[in-house]
Specification:
286 residues, MetI-like fold, two-stranded antiparallel sheet, cell membrane, transport, ABC_transporter_permease, Sugar ABC transporter permease
């Protein structure tokens, strides 16, 4: 091995050690625990954790909740972020303040955001019910209603993430050449045609990047649940990562939590293959 190769491996060694310690080793340990443990006790090779997973009605509901959560929050957050970026990128007065207003929710801690929205959703003193009371409406138990609690969490997520994704779209829009739009205007293309034929195709690399982050955020969302619903009522707002936490640290069933973690990992791998295998082909790089 040459001196340059040795030097390269030494430079990579700190990063490799961190990856081994915090990524690869925990992954192998999780797989091992899921098939060689029951509850908190070691055992012989067993698939009982996965058999129970197939029969777990709560898990089935949690998977549906997580899928609905991702299907609603991801496209909504991306769509609103794109609209906001197009708006604040236009020549308008006060656009700097508008950008700041859109971006402010992003810098707030997740726990702080949950407490802010708790003030909106509280059944008796909450702002939403106070507004409904002006129209002589009794209001709703927003977080205590099984039909509403999950959608209330979706609103919070979209509100917080749209401003973050807007920054990426805004940076991409400002990098587009004005000559493209000038040529399109000379050819008689309207604003919608320019957006459909020029802007949106050139924003596809940014959209793919945002899509990956939005999907990851949807599957790892857990902070709001601790403050707002704790997965209730009756698991109506329970999501997969919070269910893993419950089994590991509330029910102390670490083996089943490891099996659920592997399920989450496989779901993320499948989504990554879908995103980079399908959407990558529709992405136009300059």
């Amino acid at each position: 091995m040459s001196r340059h190769s040795v030097q390269a491996w030494l430079l990579l060694l700190p990063a490799l050690c961190l990856l081994m310690a915090f990524t690869y080793f925990p992954t192998v340990q999780t797989v091992w625990r899921s098939v060689f443990s029951l509850g908190t006790q070691p055992s012989d090779f067993t698939l009982e954790n996965y058999q129970f997973m197939m029969e777990d009605d709560v898990l089935h509901q949690v998977i549906v909740n997580t899928a609905l959560y991702a299907l609603f929050t991801v496209p909504l957050a991306i769509g609103i972020a794109l609209v906001m970026a197009l708006w604040v990128n236009s020549q308008m007065k006060g656009r700097g303040w508008l950008r700041l207003a859109y971006f402010t929710p992003t810098v707030l801690p997740m726990i702080a955001v949950a407490n802010i929205w708790l003030f909106f959703y509280s059944p008796e003193i909450g702002l939403l019910n106070q507004l409904l009371g002006l129209f002589e409406h009794r209001g709703y138990n927003w977080l205590g209603d099984p039909d509403l609690s999950l959608y209330c969490l979706m609103v919070i997520t979209v509100w917080k993430e749209a401003g973050f994704f807007m920054i990426f779209y805004l940076a991409a829009l400002q990098s587009l050449s004005p000559e493209l739009y000038q040529a399109a205007s000379i050819e008689g293309a309207g604003r919608w045609t320019q957006f459909r034929r020029i802007t949106f195709p050139l924003l596809m690399p940014t959209t793919l990047f945002i899509l990956v982050n939005a999907v990851l955020n949807a599957f790892k969302m857990v902070d709001h649940l601790f403050i707002l619903t704790k997965g209730g009522p009756n698991n109506a707002s329970n999501l997969l990562l919070y269910y893993i936490y419950e089994n590991a640290f509330s029910f102390f069933d670490t083996a089943y939590a490891a099996s659920l973690t592997l399920l989450l990992l496989l779901a993320l791998v499948a989504l990554a293959l879908l995103q980079f295998g399908v959407f990558e082909r529709r992405t136009h790089y300059r």
